[in-house]
Amino acid sequence: MSTRTRWWWVRHAPVTSTDGRIYGNTDPPANVEDPPTYAALARFLPQDGTLVTSQLQRTHQTANAIRDAGLDLPEATIEEDLQEQNFGDWQGRKREDVYAELDPKHLFWLAPARTRAPGGESFVDMMGRVSAVIERLTSEHSGRDIISVGHGGVIRAAIGHALNLDPEVALACQIDNCSVTRLDHFGPTESHPEGAWALFHVNQHATTESILAPDHTAMLALLQR
Predict the structure, then answer these.
(1) Overall domain count for the chain
(2) Going by DSSP bridges, is the β-strand pair 77-78/196-204 parallel, antiparallel, or unpaired?
(3) Could you tell me if residue 105 is inside a domain?
(4) What is the pLDDT along the chain (225 residues), one digit of tens a residue?
(5) Is residue 96 part of a domain?
(6) pTM for the model
(7) In terms of residue numbers, what domain contains 162?
(8) Is 146 a domain residue?
(9) Which residues are CB-neighbours of 6 under 8 A, at least 6 positions away?
(10) Distance between CA atoms of 71 and 83, rounded to whole angstroms?
(11) What is the domain-level CATH number for residue 162?
């Protein structure tokens, strides 16, 4: 029987108004005034999980809202390499103004995966740092539940890492605020020394129905790394 480590990725609550400006890895607060959402998350997420966040306050506020709704969460392990993509000089500018300057453009993200923001990083750069954290924490917390309250770009990067996707494909994954994405790691085994990942759901919204749904009804893809 291989060891199973479960990652529960929760995107943070919506940020307060940014007037359409790019915020990236800057630190605006979140609006967590939606008690039913956090009550559903508190019932949906596992007990006795390890909590991981970035250093940005919107992840802490979201985790605290879930804790206040009834889930017994430990103090968070803060991983700065799980912060959102650094959009450099684009941060603080109107999204439409930056997008109008880009060639080529991207349909689902601000810029193509390999385009590095001036003074910042590309999505591919972010995938590299996120992947390193995932590998390390999967080893350190082998066989446990890891609840990571984080960012939309980071969760896309996690999906890309687990399923060995081209970064442009990973950017096509929709990740809503307060949604849950679950990725389980199995192994290592003699035949799969690096282990393998299973995708159970992406962008799952915690509701009474989803809480009652068994794992075998979720989307499952087991891929060897």
Answers:
(1) 1
(2) unpaired
(3) no
(4) 679 999 999 999 999 988 999 999 999 999 999 999 999 999 999 999 999 999 999 999 999 999 999 999 999 999 999 999 999 999 999 999 999 999 999 999 999 999 999 999 999 999 999 999 999 999 999 999 999 999 999 999 999 999 999 999 999 999 999 999 999 999 877 777 788 999 999 999 997 555 444 443 333 333 333
(5) no
(6) 0.91
(7) 4-20+29-87+123-224
(8) yes
(9) 46, 144, 145, 146, 182, 183, 184
(10) 23
(11) 3.40.50.1240
Any domain includes 102:
no
Crossing angle of helices 123-140 and 152-163, in 10° steps, is 70
Q: Regarding beta strands 180-186 and 77-78, do their DSSP bridges make them parallel or antiparallel, or are they unpaired?
A: unpaired
Query: Token digits for 12?
Result: 């943070």
Q: Which two tokens stand for residue 75?
A: 């103090």
Can you read off the two tokens belonging to residue 141?
């917390």
